[in-house]
Amino acid sequence: MTLHSPHPCPVRRAPPRRLMTLRRVLARRAGARRCAALAGLLAGLALAAGPALAHPGSLDEFGGHFDERSGEYHYHRPSKDMAERKQEYLQWARFPVQGTIQGKVVSVAGASSVWIFVDYRPAFQDLAQRIAKENRDDRKELLRVDLAHVSPEETGARNPRFEEWFVGQVTHELKQKLLDRAVSVNFSIVGGSSSRLRGMVFIGKENVNLWLVLNGWSYYMLGDGDSEYDKLFRNAEDIARRDKTGIWKLR
User: Fold this and answer.
1) Which range marks the domain in which residue 229 is found?
2) How do 182-190 and 142-147 pair as beta strands?
3) pTM of this structure
């Protein structure tokens, strides 16, 4: 006699092939969405971290750092209180080509140029980004300044018998006068692709460019264009000629 269970076990049937294919497609799509969401999250974190991730090293008090690879300084998160203090060091008379910068002379480059140290990074950066790399030092915050309306080298070249001695003497006099002194420079940015600062250097109220002419260490050079000090330079040259100082004594 055969016994039949009142509740026979149901037979599980395999789902149709079409249903299985649909499930696989849906699973793949869900996985792709999860991957896309994760990628978006990672991208957002990278953006929030900013470019500092691409340049290892801590930021300074101004929100920037010196990049060893490029040899330049740049900002990542500029400090908000820089603008007001920056004006203590840099004042624009005609932005972005003329102004006044405060600094300290750290070296004399020949008889017609000096290097100044700007003791406030944001003021230095404002100018440095407009100056050719060969005329600045981003790491040390140095700017090269060519002295306007004077040229002891050209003055010496017009008197070849004592040119070498003369240029050396003027360089010595400039070092004695300027090294480690606080100065202000009324500058213009000149030179096109080799952009540099050219200007009048002042120690307090004393015009060093004018001092060079007055002491016969340079002729008054007109090639730099018009100067508001034109009359003063011409008078200084007349005095040096009359008193036979510097180059006028040697002629």
Assistant:
1) 88-250
2) unpaired
3) 0.74
